[in-house]
Design a protein that fits this description.
Blueprint lengths: L10 H12 L4 E3 L5 E4 L10 E8 L16 E7 L5 H11 L5 E6 L2 H16 L4 E6 L21 H12 L4 H13 L1 E9 L17 E4 L10 E4 L3 H15 L7 E8 L5 H17 L3 E2 L3 E3 L8 E8 L3 H8 L17
Parallel strand pairs: 3-4, 3-5, 5-6, 10-11, 10-12
Antiparallel strand pairs: 1-2, 2-4, 7-8, 7-13, 8-9, 10-13
Helix pairs in contact: 2-3, 4-5, 4-8, 6-7
């Protein structure tokens, strides 16, 4: 498959160049060129900062979600590779004031190792930083072993809700506790119909017969847990929703936020069809969907696939989910719901 880039060595920095040039009123480079932070003065001392380090190749996450009401900074690693601990430390230095900061860590081995090391180095420098581990993919570890699961697109609920809460002046300890509660209320399951291709090697990430769907792949093309024959979307959605609700049963009447995330090679037509089937499924079992989010936010190099994330918020969390934000690629939430 043909790809557009200058060189493998420069593709990440070229991408950041374009992003910063396109949105100069919202984002800026940090002291290190691989740190993208909010434009303007650094965060004041009374606000807790929120940042994350992650590999490239999944855009617009997380660089596209830097801005008021969301992330204060994103530390950008190489393609599908966690940024180094030293680089994450640069980002922490860039945004941490007296109120401290939360380093979000999506649970993947390299991110966890380097993120925790960066936190320790920051603490040695006297910076007040707390890590928050994020995981939601039910296919990666069984029920009862939730803390062994991978981070998946449902982690975006934490980005948004903690970003809004930080703007209210919430303390560092309360933000971490809120993030842990959001995490406990979120479940995600993904599926793919076609592999993406690594921009570094040109190789497909996994093989799949034309008439099969892969259930449970990770965001780096990690193996799934089951295969199904292709068929109507409603059957696939029903299968996936049964697995999600087996993992976290919900009572009838529960307000539930659904996120349908495209993996990079799935059209909006397909994603909206999937959401339609999810909405019908939830209505049948008496669960009330509210404030959905549908689009391609956590991608894997044109992989054709999607994930369903189900999140059951408290009233406070729902208000924070709907709160205004100003970032290049996070959508407006709650349109038509009165706010």
């Amino acid at each position: 498959m043909k790809k557009l880039f200058n060189s493998k060595e420069s593709m990440v920095d070229d991408m950041i160049d374009g992003f910063v040039a396109a949105f100069p009123g919202v984002v800026a480079r940090g002291d290190h060129p691989r740190v993208v932070r909010k434009a303007g003065p650094k965060t004041g001392d009374k606000k807790v900062s929120l940042l994350i380090g992650n590999g490239s190749g999944h855009e617009p996450i997380a660089m596209g979600f830097v801005g008021p009401g969301l992330l204060d900074a994103n530390v950008v690693g190489d393609v599908f590779a966690a940024p180094s601990a030293d680089l994450i430390l640069e980002g922490i230095r860039d945004v941490t004031g007296e109120a401290g900061s939360v380093l979000l860590i999506s649970r993947h081995e390299g991110d966890v190792i380097n993120g925790n090391a960066a936190v320790m180095m920051a603490e040695d420098e006297g910076l007040n930083v707390r890590p928050l581990l994020m995981y939601d993919d039910i296919s990666s570890a069984p029920k009862g072993e939730e803390d062994e699961r991978r981070g998946a697109p449902g982690t975006m609920f934490i980005y948004k809700i903690l970003g809004a809460a930080a703007e209210t002046g919430m303390s560092l300890d309360d933000l971490v506790a809120l993030g842990e509660d959001v995490r406990s209320r979120t479940r995600t399951l993904g599926a793919a119909v076609r592999s993406g291709i690594s921009p570094l090697t040109g190789d497909v990430m996994f093989s799949l017969p034309e008439d099969e769907i892969y259930i449970g792949i990770g965001v780096h093309g990690e193996p799934g847990v089951a295969r199904r024959k292709t068929g109507p979307v409603k059957d696939l959605v029903a299968f996936m929703m049964e697995k999600i609700l087996e993992d976290r049963p919900l009572e009838a009447g529960t307000e539930t936020v659904v996120m349908i995330n495209g993996s990079g090679g799935t059209t909006q037509m397909e994603l909206l069809t999937i959401y339609s089937e999810v909405e019908k499924y939830l209505s049948k079992v008496g669960i009330q969907p509210v404030s959905p989010m549908i689009g391609s936010f956590v991608t894997t190099q044109e992989t054709a696939g999607f994930s369903i994330s189900v999140f059951t918020p408290t009233s406070e969390m729902l208000s924070l989910w709907r709160a205004p934000q100003h970032s290049p690629y996070f959508p407006v939430i709650g349109l038509g719901e009165g706010g």
